[in-house]
Specification:
two-stranded antiparallel ribbon; 5 helices; elongated
Amino acid sequence: MKIYTKTGDKGTTALFGGTRVPKHHIRIDSYGTVDELNSHIGLLRDQEMNPHYQNVLMEIQDLLFTVGAVLATDPEKATLKNGKDRLNIPRISEAEVAVLEKEMDTMNAELPPMTHFVLPGGHQTVSFCHIARCVCRRAERLATALYEVEPFDEFTLKYLNRLSDYLFVLARKLSHDLQANEIKWIPKKNS
């Protein structure tokens, strides 16, 4: 299979179902940002950390391909003529959201209570996690903008929202595990 097709040379690309849209279309921006997020999570997963977190991150990466597929599907062509879904893959459900919530609860139980915002950083691994969190928030913002125009499965949005929360808690847990300095943001007072 050739990687280059030359079909996008004039600034359009095809969605699942064949519909061609401009490469700057909100749908392309949405799933492109999910792809970017997936790459950042891969970079994070490559760092030294508890193997359990690496396994969870790999599962997340797998699910992000599902999220991307949902976002890349033209809603008008999501159902085939025979009535079956164009995407013959399991969708994001409440179960995947619940996994993230359970993981967060487990990590939070080992962390000191949060009393202030924290400055991202303290260790390279923690910084990679915060970057992934920020990219996830951007993916969520783009997906919600798309959802307003062309709705799709709401669990996809819910998963992105919960994932950014998970990445924040994971960053705090990694700081804890790595004994990195978690710096609280304390606003300066006006003189």
